């Protein structure tokens, strides 16, 4: 009885999944045709931003990793040497504190990685802030949210539009 | 159920009701006081958070007072306390929003302008404006010559809006409140406000009856 119920459920969910496929395909295909779209600035991304955060090896004592990639809109080519600014409410300070801010550069693969103190929930969500504002490309502010406040890492990806 | 307790042991019943209310209000506050997040917050941010929890807890007290569900409070006295708690509620909301503004101005400005990235902000702002409108209506009730029936309808409708907005606001926030005590407070605040709405018959029922008063 149970197995019959389960199999019926499986068929139903499989049916639902097959309905989903054309929908997702319809959404992704035109994006590929136009090339990689630039990342839009997120709501609240620029909050408590401090221009000109220094390039640092690590923000504070570390223990948490902010990671991500920077690519060019259109062809998706990785962008090396791009300056990304990072800040958050952490175990060592508020978003507004200058010590909570730091910047890093992308490597040859367009990847960046900066160690910082553990991000803790503030204003209702555990989140970080990132900015690209060096001028060669359009300015973008991101505000990624952690899936869990216990996460030890957070990723954010930039696709930049030439200015 | 209430009939039996009513007649036989009013003192015990009164004691139990008041103790339960005291627990429902103090447990969420005490649980929040043990939140690990407090270690990484400035005093003004901590005060702002607790002002929000106090405001939330007062939302449970208000319908209980005015509905006559709290033993020992006569109708006149209950109404006076309801007024005082209302003023306290406005002050708590102001402390909540003001404290958050000092903590992080851009986040609060975003919330007030309804462009915040956090989905709970809009519910909090809605509840805040509903609290202010309710208070203003209360202050100018006599001047505006609002009829008792219209007053009741408007006041309970606003109360429902405040409680609903606050509950959604609180549930979506990952903050200092402990999950279980928060959920209990949410349920009780909704239940008490709905009970008032039903008891005072703000919507037309099949049989038109007089509103129940204690």
Automatic annotation (TrEMBL), chain A:
Keywords: Signal
Protein species of origin: Roseibium denhamense
Record's signal peptide: 1-25
Protein's UniProt keywords contain Transmembrane: no
Name of the featured protein: Twin-arginine translocation pathway signal
From TrEMBL, chain B:
Protein name, entry field: Ferric reductase
Highest taxon listed in the record's lineage: Bacteria
Keywords, alphabetical: Membrane, Transmembrane, Transmembrane helix
TM segment ranges: 12-38, 44-69, 81-102, 122-140, 152-173, 179-198
Species assigned in the record: Roseibium denhamense
